Amino acid sequence: AETLVEVETLLHGHNRKETMMRIAALATVVGGASAFAPSQLVRRTAAASSLHSTLEREETAPTRVAPDAGWEPEWEGRTGLSPDEFMKSDMDSEDLSGMWECPLTRWDSEGIDVEKAQAEGAKQPHCPLEMKASDADNAMGAEYFSKNKEQIRADLLKYGAIWFRGFDLMKSVSGNREMHEALGLDPCLDPLHSSGLRKFASERDALYEEVNKPSLRQHYIGLHNESTAKRTAAYAAFVCFQRATEGGGRFLVADGAAILGELSPELAKKLYERKIRISVSNLDIPPSFPGPIKEGIKGLVDAAVAPKFD
């Protein structure tokens, strides 16, 4: 089992192909509606009062493919549990169904010194921090996380994410829950819960399945934060119990601070001053649909769907 816990300063993407990735809701859960499909509605907003929409034509839209990673870790080939084993819930534990919604997004974007922010971003340590379990660590089980809680949470803030490797505890739903409870992370609903994009793998354990809708499985979902303009939570935990059975299944993590630091100052300042925001809605609109119908769908999404997330 590989587990990644992150604070919301990261970007990550997924390549969907029958993976068995499960995502825990920890004061944040997997969100991000930046999925790419054959036909897309892309809305670019220059300010809150100005919403401009364009419908990309299928024949001109670029093909979306998962990018190569700048660094790929060595595959360790560890054997996990069977689905019957890793999906077992501890029925003696509290039922976490009926969780609170995750917190409202807190916007604090005024008065930012872009050049200073870029300089700070460039100085941040490499992300994610990799932590490998020793035999002694595994022997401690959940106690390892409770005893090291303060250091782990401090490292989360310092590095942006921690990649826990080789921990036997997180090979199952019940063990993964023990981990985040030992760290004192409170579960909440997915910021995208109302969209229906993601179902629970184990609701009583606050564990969501990754977006696995048939219409999205073959599409690369680009880098995104686990938040919306409406809802954001502080932490997210991602765990993989079983290797993807049909290829794909890659989980990409991008260091948001490093990206900020590498942007040209002119571009970063322009994006900030113009308040550029990009939102993507996944629409499989048949190419044969007449233009007016496509425009009507676009307007409907702007009016009915976008407010849930923007």
What key phrases describe this protein's structure?
13 strands, 21% strand, 3-stranded antiparallel sheet, alpha+beta, 310 residues, 7-stranded mixed sheet, 9 helices
Topology summary:
Elements: E1 2-7, E2 11-15, E3 21-24, E4 40-47, E5 50-55, H1 83-86, H2 114-122, E6 129-132, H3 135-140, H4 142-147, H5 149-159, E7 161-165, H6 173-182, E8 200-202, E9 207-209, E10 220-224, E11 235-240, E12 251-254, H7 256-262, H8 265-273, E13 277-282, H9 291-309
Parallel strand pairs: 6-7
Antiparallel strand pairs: 1-7, 1-11, 2-10, 2-12, 3-9, 3-11, 4-5, 4-13, 8-9
Helix pairs in contact: 2-7
Model description:
The protein has 310 residues and is α+β, with helices and mostly antiparallel strands. It has helices at residues 83-86, 114-122, 135-140, 142-147, 149-159, 173-182, 256-262, 265-273, 291-309, and strands at residues 2-7, 11-15, 21-24, 40-47, 50-55, 129-132, 161-165, 200-202, 207-209, 220-224, 235-240, 251-254, 277-282. The strands form three sheets. A seven-stranded mixed sheet has the order 6-7-1-11-3-9-8. Strands 10-2-12 form a three-stranded antiparallel sheet. The two termini are 34 Å apart. The model is unreliable at 14-58 (pLDDT under 50).
